TrEMBL record:
InterPro entries: G1P_cyt_trans-like, NTP_transferase_dom, Nucleotide-diphossugar_trans. GO terms for molecular function: glucose-1-phosphate cytidylyltransferase activity. This is Nucleotidyl transferase domain-containing protein. It comes from Bacteroides fragilis. Residues 2-59 form the Nucleotidyl transferase domain.
């Protein structure tokens, strides 16, 4: 089952931090709030995450793109460019990052995720029932 995390809000109630980083990336200890939430789900066996991004999406994307290098010691061979990781701190997580738009509200973010063919093809992703 995929865990969907809406990580696109502007964080206006924490404006002192959110002018620099989006709310999910405000650090608690060594890691951002988002990491702590994902780690909590992972403790219960949920390791497949979909992040609906919006405000300052590039900050969240950079965190995950650089995660492995920033959380491990490594050796770089400058003549070949080869990287050898010394102590692999591995998280068995699959993280899908989807930019759902800067000013998109919650319902719009979910709709964009549900209309993504790569995500909605998963039977355990999401089921929307529209009640009138």
């Amino acid at each position: 089952m995929k865990v969907v995390i809406l990580a696109g809000g502007k964080g206006t109630r924490i404006a002192e931090y959110s002018t620099r980083v989006p709310k999910p990336m405000v650090e608690i200890g060594e890691y951002p709030i988002l990491w702590h939430i994902m780690n909590w789900y992972a403790k219960f066996g949920y390791n497949d995450f979909v992040l609906a991004l919006g405000y300052k999406a590039q900050v969240i994307k950079e965190f995950f793109l650089n995660y492995y290098a920033l959380n491990n010691d490594f050796e770089v061979n400058l003549s070949t460019g080869e990287i050898k990781y010394i102590n692999k701190q591995n998280r068995n997580w699959k993280v899908t990052l989807v930019d759902t738009g800067l000013d998109t509200m919650t319902g719009g973010r979910i709709k964009r995720l549900a209309s993504n063919p790569q995500l909605s093809s998963s039977a355990s992703f999401l089921r929307l029932n529209v009640l009138s």
